[in-house]
Amino acid sequence: MESNFRSTGTTTVALKCKDCVVLATDRQGSIGSIKEKVTKIIQLDDHLAITTAGSAGHNQSLARHLKAEANLYKIKKNMPITVNALGTVISNIFFSQRYFPPIAVMILGGYDRNGPQILSLFPDGSAVDDEEYYATGSGTPVALGVLETLFKSDMSEKEGIEVAVKTINTAIKRESNTGFEADVAVIDKNGFRKIKL
């Protein structure tokens, strides 16, 4: 019997550097057998963004919800939401859907009063926040091999970008479901910005 299942994948990484967070992803998205160039780094607020792995529809819907939550928090509290507070919102959304979980894995990165922060969030509602780097997607084994070799604590922004790009480019070469090119963003005390490579 022939299977209609199509293998898709991605590689996303986040690095906590000395004065910033660096987010990087590949740009390949799949619609059936068609490969398209997509963006997997989504800005949620001036100081927050996510990397996305999984279903584009689920991730885009969750991103819209998270942008609204960040805006509501800002209106109610007259201050921006912290990375940990938005991480709790994401975990609660995921946990509330645990019986029919979204096909989504996210890394939340941001810069708040506690400095640069990253959290890895999973469809069962769990969150991990005690690491200096994370990787998600089908290219995770390749990405972790590169990160474990090249990452150093307290890297500069420039060093972080170089390591992130090397990680994504290695995954593009070695993992068949990761493709096109690297997409990179930095979040620091001045906010979110995309990096032109």
What's the gist of this structure?
With 197 residues, this protein is of the alpha+beta class. The chain has a single domain (12-188), classed as Glutamine Phosphoribosylpyrophosphate, subunit 1, domain 1, CATH 3.60.20. It contains four helices and twelve strands.
Looking at this protein, list some descriptive labels.
197 residues; alpha+beta; Glutamine Phosphoribosylpyrophosphate, subunit 1, domain 1; five-stranded antiparallel β-sheet; 4 helices; 33% helix; 33% strand
Verbal overview:
This protein has 197 residues and is an alpha+beta fold. The chain has a single domain, classed as Glutamine Phosphoribosylpyrophosphate, subunit 1, domain 1 (4-Layer Sandwich). It contains 4 helices and 12 strands. The strands form 3 sheets. Strands 10-1-2-11-12 form a 5-stranded antiparallel beta sheet, covered by helices on one side. A 5-stranded antiparallel beta sheet has the order 5-6-7-8-9, covered by helices on one side. A two-stranded antiparallel ribbon has the order 3-4. A hairpin with a 2-residue loop joins strand 5 and strand 6. Helix 3 packs antiparallel against helix 4. The protein is globular and about 45 Å long. The N terminus is likely disordered.
